[in-house]
Specification:
- The protein has 13 helices and 13 strands.
- Helix 5 packs parallel to helix 6 and helix 8 packs across helix 9.
- The relative contact order is 0.14.
- It has a seven-stranded mixed β-sheet with strand order 4-3-2-1-5-6-7, sandwiched between helices.
- By secondary structure, it is an alpha/beta fold.
- The longest helix is centred in the last third of the chain and has 20 residues.
- It folds into two domains: 174 residues, Rossmann fold, CATH 3.40.50; 159 residues, Dihydrodipicolinate Reductase, domain 2.
- The protein binds L-homoserine.
Length: 343
């Protein structure tokens, strides 16, 4: 499986590291991933024979771009050219450039071009899906290619797969939960005495926050995930503009302390209510013994299901390696789908 990795930030680097460190395991299950192209915002590295993780890291660390990869790096070449100019033969594009919710770019073009060129796509980029999910799914269907995105929601926790596989046949009436690790980390740390700014800096240092952290604190990251869940597992036809969004900017330690005294905790929740046709994101005071009252960078999501009742799933929701694992899982699933011709 020849792979082009578009985006070499926190998640992209973790993907490259994981493909290298899990090589034996992957080969054992018949998956032979070969990283033939890697792109960041300044350049690309391309080698049909495969790129070496340590050399990618060295180029990125010492000179700031994979475009400085020895012999195979090219500064100034854009990621999209790998696909549109067929700079190398590729089977799968892994799209992990930063989320942009204004126009979805450059991820949206990468995904469209890849599908139109007959390539499969695995992505953890929420912007293109939140803005154009129905049309991207149609394009994937039309071209007969895989579009896998389980890393977009829940980081390392398989919320999407759980809903798809384990709730199949039942009807999801609604869902609500914590879908942003950064905000949950900030709110938990503020309860422990840190200021908003200190907690945000720490979340950035730990690699939880988006490149533009206002995406996290103003609620847009949660809103993107709500759209992806609503469209994909509840069959809603909504995009980002249909979600009412309020973030946690302006939250004070005093407010959190008062909530604590009332036996509550404050969480940034996202919710979809199919019956009322409403999707929203807002900070909400919930009882401390609620299953959603998880701390740190954890995510927690409750599904309200017609016959099965309410089910809550908890797990890590942010971080490079956690998201990279979900991407790897998608690659394995893609291989199985191709094997059984079920795309
Ligand atoms: N910034 C996101 C978060 C990363 O904090 O949850 C995972 O989507």
């Amino acid at each position: 499986m020849r792979i082009a990795l578009l985006g070499y930030g926190n998640v992209g680097r973790a993907v490259a590291r994981l493909l290298e460190s899990r090589r034996n395991h992957l080969e054992g299950i018949g998956l032979y991933p070969k990283l033939v192209a890697v792109a960041d915002s300044r350049g690309v590295a391309i080698n049909p024979g495969g790129l070496d993780y340590s050399k990618l890291e060295e180029a990125k660390r010492s000179r700031g771009s994979v475009g400085f990869y020895p012999d195979y790096g090219r500064i100034g070449v854009k990621a999209v050219e790998i696909i549109s100019d067929r700079l190398v033969d590729v089977d799968v594009v892994i799209e992990v450039t930063p989320t942009n919710i204004v126009d979805g770019e450059p991820g949206l073009t990468h995904i469209r071009e890849a599908l139109k060129s007959g390539l499969h796509v695995v992505t953890a980029n929420k912007g293109p899906l939140a803005l154009a999910m129905p049309s991207l799914l149609e394009l994937a269907h039309h071209t007969g290619r895989g579009l896998m995105f389980s890393g977009t929601v829940g980081g390392g926790t398989p919320f999407i797969r759980f809903a798809e596989k384990c709730l199949a046949g039942d009807r999801i009436l609604g869902l609500e939960g914590i879908l942003n690790g950064t905000c949950n980390y900030i709110l938990s740390s503020m309860e422990d005495g840190l200021s908003f700014e200190q907690a945000l800096r720490e979340a950035q240092r730990l690699g939880y926050a988006e490149a533009d952290p206002s995406m996290d604190v103003d609620g847009w990251d949660t809103a993107c995930k709500i759209v992806i869940l609503a469209v994909h597992i509840m069959g809603a036809r909504i995009t980002l503009k249909d979600v009412e969004v309020k973030g946690i900017r302006g939250m004070t330690k005093e407010y959190l302390t008062e909530a604590c005294k009332r036996g509550s905790t404050v969480k940034l929740l996202g919710s979809v209510d199919a019956k009322r046709g409403r999707a929203w994101v807002a900070p909400v005071e919930i009882p401390r013994n609620s299953p959603l009252a998880v701390s740190g960078n954890l995510n927690a999501l409750t599904f309200h299901v017609e016959n099965l009742g309410s089910i809550t799933m908890i797990g890590k929701g942010a971080g490079g390696i956690e998201t990279a694992h979900n991407i790897l899982k998608d690659l394995i699933e893609l291989k199985m789908k191709l094997q059984y011709r079920s795309i």
